[in-house]
TrEMBL record:
Residues 25-168 form the Lactate/malate dehydrogenase N-terminal domain. Residues 171-332 form the Lactate/malate dehydrogenase C-terminal domain. Substrate binds at R104, R110, N142, R176. It comes from Callosobruchus maculatus (Southern cowpea weevil). This is Malate dehydrogenase, mitochondrial.
Amino acid sequence: MFSRIVRPTLNTARKFSTSQQNNYRVTVCGAAGGIGQPLSLLLKLNPLVTELNCYDIAPFTPGVACDLSHIETASKVKGFAGQESLKDALSNAEVVVIPAGVPRKPGMTRDDLFGSNANVVKTIFECATEACPDAIFCIITNPVNSCVPIACEVMKKANKLNPRRIFGVSTLDIVRANTFVGEMCGVNPKEMNVPVIGGHSGITIVPLFSRATPKVSIPKDKLDALTKRVQEAGTEVVKAKVGHGSATLSMAYAGARFANSIMRGLKGESNVIECCYVQSDVTEAAYFSNPVLLGKAGLEKNLGIGEINAYEKDLVSKALPELKKEIAKGVDWVKSQ
Ligand SMILES: NC(=O)c1ccc[n+]([C@@H]2O[C@H](COP(=O)([O-])OP(=O)(O)OC[C@H]3O[C@@H](n4cnc5c(N)ncnc54)[C@H](O)[C@@H]3O)[C@@H](O)[C@H]2O)c1
Ligand SMILES: O=C(O)C[C@H](O)C(=O)O
C-alpha cells in the first residue's frame, strides 16, 4: 500500500550506523557551555553512543537536550539542570566527559582557574563515587594538570580509585601540533600524528616533532617557534576571542575524538592509542601525558615516552618542575578539605 521511501545517499547523517548493540551511555558534565554544546552534538552523531545525558548547572540545559534530541540518530538524549540532578545524570554512565567550569580570560593562566574549577571537579567526582564509580572519566576542565590529581584524590578518599579509568584530555595539543606542522610541511593535517607529552599548560606541553608520522623535517630555525606555538596555542585563541572565552569548537572536536577512542577501546578494538594525561610512573611526576593503549580496562598499557632527542629531553626537564608543582597543588587541596 505504501511505496518504500528511498532516502538520498548524499544525506551525510545516513552514513552513521543505527546499530546500537553494545554501545555506550555517555554523560557530559558542563553540557550547556561553549565546549559542552558542540561536544554533545558530536556525541549525538556518534553511533557508539546509545544514551547521552546532558548535565549542567545552567537552567536551560533541558533545552539543549531537547534541541539535540530532534537529530535523526538513534541515541536517546536527556537533559539535567542543577546540582540536585547530578546523581541522576551520572547514574549508570559508562563514559563521563567533563568540560564543566570557568574558561580563561586574556591575561590569565590556566592555573588562575584553580580557585573556581577545583570545586567543580571535586563536586562531580564526589557524586560519581556513588553514581558511577566504574565509569571512564575524561576531564577537560582546566587546569587539567591539577584537576586530574583532584579527581583521583577524591576517588581515593572514597576507596573507589581506578587510575586506569581517569583521563585528562590533552588531545587538543595533538590536534594543534598536527595542524601546525601539516601546514608548515605541506602535509594534510589529517595524515599527521605528532605525539605531545607532559601536561596541558605552557611549558608542560611538549610536542615530539622527531616522532611525527609521516616523518617531517623541520628547519632548525623554525623548531623553537613551532614548539612555542603549540605550547601557547590556547592563549592564541583566548587573545583572539577578546574576553569571550577560550577554545570551544576545536576542543569539542578534540573531546569527541578522545571519547570516540575510549569507546573503541571499550569495544575491544585493537591498537587504539591516544596521548593523554594519566596517573603515571613514567617520570618523577605522579601524572604525565604520553601515548597510552586504550582498551576494555580504559588504560590498557602505558606506552611511555619512547625515543626522544636532546632538544625534546631538555623540554621535558623544563616541564617537570612546573608539572610537579601543579600536581601537588591539586593533591594538597583535596587533602586539606
Ligand atoms: N583540556 C583542554 O584542552 C581544554 C580546552 C579548552 C577549554 N578547556 C576548559 O574547559 C572548561 C570549559 O570551557 P568552556 O569554554 O566550555 O566554558 P563555558 O563557560 O562556555 O562553559 C562551561 C559550562 O560549565 C558549566 N558549569 C560551571 N560550573 C559547573 C558545575 N559545578 N557543574 C556543572 N556544570 C558547571 C557552566 O554552566 C557552563 O555551561 C574551562 O575550564 C576551560 O578552561 C580545556
Ligand atoms: O587555553 C585555555 O585556557 C583553554 C585550553 O586549555 C586550550 O588549550 O585551548
